[in-house]
Amino acid sequence: MSLREEQHNQKDFNQELLKRLDHQQEYIDRRLEARHQKLDQFITEFREVKRLEAAASEEKKWWKFWKYRL
């Protein structure tokens, strides 16, 4: 194998490796974006649940109604 052939083979190999790295990075970026979206959705739902719990705890309980009526 000549030096030119080896250089050509190495160049082809490097280009293929760069393509694989690009695909891998795209995959990682897509997975991270999906993870961030799920995390944002979870945080939003968690805050809504906490807000509803806080609102429910502020409502007067039925037994407290009689406490103030007497």
Written description of the protein model:
- This protein is 91% helix and 0% strand.
- It is an all-alpha fold.
- It has one domain (3-69).
Number of E-type strands: 0
Query: How many individual domains?
Result: 1
Radius of gyration: 31 Å
Helix/strand structural class: mainly alpha
Largest sheet: none
- Name the quaternary structure: single chain
Strand content: under 5%
Terminal residue distance? 103 Å
The outline comes out as rod-shaped
SS field, number of helical segments: 2
Mean pLDDT: 88
Poorly predicted ranges: none
What is the string of helix and strand elements?
A: HH
Proportion of helical residues: over 70%
In brief:
The protein has helices spanning 3-58, 62-69. It starts with a helix and ends with a helix.
